[in-house]
Design brief:
single chain; alpha+beta; five-stranded mixed beta sheet
């Protein structure tokens, strides 16, 4: 089937198979920040933004992006690097495997929620699994990032 969509600011028309997971499709297009983790919608590693909302690409069919705007970390490198700096400064970046999905969710959260409370941040990021940090340093980094963005 033929789909048309925007990927990281570029208009694309492509032929896709109806049952292809978005994760596989995006990786085949060079978006290697889209990680494979659980492939059951439980870890958040495969998060991308579709029309500014975080979506788990392992459980989304590629056909569903027809007519939509898709963003991966490859298209958001400046903002992703900035957030990554906050994570590193707070010791929240140990192995880094979960970072792309976490960062994509943080970007989605900042687009959707204005002045989120700590509880809202926790709820928004609940689907991101990290086996290294215990989440305290991640929450500290996110809180600091949001506070400094508000001041700017």
């Amino acid at each position: 089937m033929k789909i048309s969509y925007t990927l990281n600011g570029r208009a694309i028309t492509d032929e896709v198979t109806p049952a292809q997971p978005l994760t596989e499709y995006l990786r085949s297009r060079g978006c290697l920040s889209v990680k494979r983790g659980c492939e059951t919608s439980n870890c958040g590693l495969c998060t991308v933004l579709v029309d500014d909302k975080p979506v788990l690409s392992c459980s989304t069919l590629t056909a569903r992006i027809d007519g939509k705007k898709v963003e991966t970390m490859e298209g958001l490198q400046e903002q992703a690097a900035e957030i990554g700096g906050y994570l590193a400064d707070e010791g929240a970046e140990q192995c880094g495997f979960c970072s792309p999905g976490l960062i994509m969710n943080i970007i989605g959260m900042t687009r959707e929620l204005k002045h989120p409370t700590e509880q809202q941040v926790r709820q928004y990021l609940a689907g991101n699994l990290c086996r290294c940090t215990g989440y305290v340093s991640q929450l500290r980094a996110i809180t600091r990032y949001l506070a400094e963005k508000e001041e700017a």
